[in-house]
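$ ./design --mode recover --in tokens.txt
reading tokens...
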């Protein structure tokens, strides 16, 4: 599916790619994970029914916030002891009545802001 948004972790070792089909792919960006075909995908998140327009890692890279064209926000736990698990934290938030345009995580790593096409 076509990429619609990107976010690079603060440590620059994980790239999140939001897609038109509502998925979010996480890629490992370490030199060992690069090949002729690009970086290695490590997870695919399936929580949005619409294109993902906003992505943001928290300052500690523990959480990834994603927002879609329905105005829905989801918070993902991207740091787990078992590297094969990425979890959804809490409930999905229906924050906007239209597209999520952008997201920003506050430096404390506990709060974030979103802006939507609904004003």
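writing sequence...
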């Amino acid at each position: 599916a076509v990429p619609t948004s990107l976010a690079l972790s603060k440590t620059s070792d994980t790239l999140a790619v939001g897609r038109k089909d509502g998925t979010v792919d996480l890629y490992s960006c370490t030199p060992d994970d690069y090949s002729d075909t690009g970086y290695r995908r490590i997870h695919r998140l399936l929580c949005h029914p619409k294109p993902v327009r906003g992505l943001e890692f928290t300052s500690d890279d523990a959480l990834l916030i994603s927002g879609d064209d329905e105005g829905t926000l989801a918070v993902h736990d991207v740091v787990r002891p078992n590297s094969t698990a990425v979890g959804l934290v809490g409930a999905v938030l229906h924050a906007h009545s239209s597209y999520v345009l952008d997201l920003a995580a506050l430096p404390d790593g506990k709060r974030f802001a979103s802006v939507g096409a609904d004003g």
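exit 0
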